[in-house]
């Protein structure tokens, strides 16, 4: 018994000892391997990232992103017979988007075309040719470069299907060599509706370009799309590929031979997809055509036209409007992989500028752009903020892969060298931010993650599929406070503000509207992110990494001769042949010796790219059909870019400094040996000097000129022209100047003339320095703007003029200076270096008011009785203009206002102009605006309550009464006196609608405001002879969103407020409860006060209402007294 026990103990001891020994050995092995795995690349480890395991997060995001193309598809059942090789449109089978049905079936029918395919642009029902073609180009690039990644998660065929859905449309839109249909639908009509695409009833008008109305940008971009897509379908559908290439060549010829900007020739497009030039599209298209054909003619084009169009040495942001960065990367590819082209001088500028773009993206680079949020996101503009970071990340990934595949270890940025892994790290940071790794913890890709936007600005998603709504009644869904009933899976919304915040609101189209070209970009970026295997030791790209779609590229790479296990499908792969374009030779790709099996764990390695070690040699050459990147696999691939476009919330970036503007065509003295400096991304070249200032959806390329904290001193909002004009004569010179003026010819001023002297002298009209001379007048009258000496534009929608009669003109004679005499007879200043020219009153009235009907208040008061001549010159004023009416202390100049804003430490100033008393609806709007600004990240927004103080029509409430009423509003706490400044704006009122509202907005820029609230029918009035509005009530805010020279001012549209009869207070109008709201117009309010009738409780603060009642009672008393006097006289 004891022996058995001893034996058992001995056995147990041996068994335990063996286990311990094994554990020790395993621990040692694990430690060694762990130390090796954590060895820094600089310590000697050769780490080369290659395609391998799939990161489930990115793969899932890619699958979701792909769905948005299906959401945006227009579905049809017919196809023109002439393109019988095209896939019949038909009704989609296996449609996974259950809330989408057939729509746009008759698109193109008015021209005998089938334009029923294609994609709706964004949250609306428009088909815009320029961004749609860009979508196709990017999707093709993504498939060509990274299609193998798509294929690994079963997304390649869906990507190709979506691409073909677009290119089918583009083929039909190009019925002849020099005709291209570029738009389906009328955006003005379309945007007046909020309905489902399946039930839309608006007319689907067509817009085209041809030799009479050329549009080089759209024709060239469409050519690029066709050429890129021809490569995608070259193997799977050669006939279709040939058709695409034929159209691409024709369209490029059309674009080049009939040059002209479509934004200039078709002005209506400026409000939506305004182009800032066509040179970049020509280079982009030629680059793609060379890749598709290897026809040296196209290569010669980019080489010869680079100096004119490429803006060498000046990095910029890649977008639907600016193709230069994409062109630079695409042409760099030639220098990497076409040995016979690497030394071509004409391509070097593109490669060097591409490197400048890349250096600007790496955060630690000496030339890094400062356009970043604190959360690390590239941030250039408030509209569609994700456009720049996603496109930059995609280009950075491409360039990183190009470097790795070429065996190039370093990217030199000034005196600092960076590795391809640094570019990859940057790209991944932007992708991660987009997917939720941000301060808001918000995924901006709808449907991905636990938190994503639920109120996406998208008509189809916001309306239940079974809802029976039409054009107008659908707006109740826009204003609904419930999340969208349908999830717009895969939509990439606009993105965060500079302070990393995001407002998930359906009417916040700036941040919350998706677009199809954004989705193309996201698909491309996500396709680059999930393969993560790392190979160690001397290794080279495998055959698996070589994309067979790109023809004729010789990739230089090498490996060792050591044998390694081949992939399970190596025999099948070895049988695949690669045909080099233009050659009958067949090449079997060499399997590198150090290739390891793919990692099956699915884990992601965050820093995918490490330096390619010098062990790569150039001894082995592989010639795939089109494979060239380390991350290219056997199918297809490439990544695309973004540029979302938005719709309704007309907030514009106030952070884009105009001081850095340079046209694309401007050239540095040298682009070959420049000393690196802090990266400044430049604005795109624009062929029409007015055009670039029109489109708010395509922000200029400059970065913000401040730190990304969203705290901006109001005084940093530069006045127009960069300097505030003040025209007061220095006190030491007043006596001399007055004496000189006494000997000058005299010009007598009216009361309105004096108000304009006040406006000009204090700088409200900066940079204007006097009454307009003829060239300034003509620019203002015809262009609504003035061009400065440096070539920049400032808004100037109203001519500021001084009229004189024949006698005064004769008195002035040849004198160059005149004295200005006030209505009271005092000399208040002078005009110097004067110019006298004809006063064509009819032209002035017609162009300012859009009518010459009698009854226009300003015209009858001021223009009709004025003289037949205009006099312009430089203004000098001896003393500040005073009215001695007890209100002068309210009349703060722009300089005084700016000082007050700084004293209050304002980081945002929002201006509200009105010429009526303030009711609680106004107060609701102003308080809500401040709340929104605080939510946007501002710390101390200040309200500038800025009533108009110059001439107004007879039935308006007088200024003194309004100012008393305003003071009661502050006394009663309706508005907070601590965050409100009340001041008088001295300008006369024209009642000129959209023309005048630009002037009102421009003047507030000069006062330091960076936000401007605009309401319904601003500066409008009823038609003087007909019972209707003189102007469309919505045109004022629309014009402000497009007006040249107002880019740095954020426009905040009114939210409609009305009296809620249930809650018994002013509230924002709810269309679903329309019958419960009472609209009280200014006219009705004045009627209440005039008749002694009280408005509903809660309409206006009681003390403020009493001011109005007393005023109208005094008028009544005056009328009664007048009648009594008349009775006595008649008796």
TrEMBL record:
Catalytic reaction list: Endohydrolysis of (1->4)-beta-D-glucosidic linkages in cellulose, lichenin and cereal beta-D-glucans; sulfate + ATP + H(+) = adenosine 5'-phosphosulfate + diphosphate
Positions with biased composition (Basic and acidic residues): 593-604
Pathway(s) annotated for this protein in UniProt: Sulfur metabolism; hydrogen sulfide biosynthesis; sulfite from sulfate: step 1/3
Cellular location(s): Plastid, Chloroplast
EC number(s) reported in the record: 3.2.1.4
Family: Belongs to the sulfate adenylyltransferase family. Belongs to the glycosyl hydrolase 9 (cellulase E) family.
Quaternary structure note: Homotetramer.
PANTHER family, per database record: ATP SULFURYLASE 2, BIFUNCTIONAL 3'-PHOSPHOADENOSINE 5'-PHOSPHOSULFATE SYNTHASE
The protein, known as: Endoglucanase
